[in-house]
Write a structure and sequence with these properties.
Order of helices and strands: HHH
Largest sheet: none
Strand content: under 5%
Helix content: 40-55%
Length: 94
């Protein structure tokens, strides 16, 4: 089964609109910051034409937290100049 067969029948204009829609979603995800970096993002999956219920497996707490720490360490290594978002989750600006 070709998951992208729906693209064959789209006009150039509709293809361009689809590319713009997908790029906007990728940019929203890319531009997330602070605590939003840690969240599950099913809205990205909703951009696909096929509707499936993802089979998400969640690690046990200690492994999950070790993964969060490793992710944060990778950000420190890859983006050492990034500003620090020093707020608790749910805390609003000002």
């Amino acid at each position: 089964m070709d998951l992208d067969e729906d693209l064959r029948d789209l006009t150039r204009g509709k293809l361009e609109a689809e590319v713009r829609r997908l790029r906007a979603a990728v940019r929203r995800h890319r531009d997330s910051s602070g605590h939003d970096l840690c969240w599950h993002h099913p809205q990205l999956w909703d951009l696909l034409p096929e509707r499936v219920e993802p089979a998400v497996a969640v690690p046990p707490w200690p492994r999950f937290l070790r993964g969060c720490v490793r992710y944060r360490e990778s950000l420190e290594a890859e983006l050492p100049q990034a500003p620090v978002h020093d707020r608790e989750y749910g805390e609003r600006d000002g």
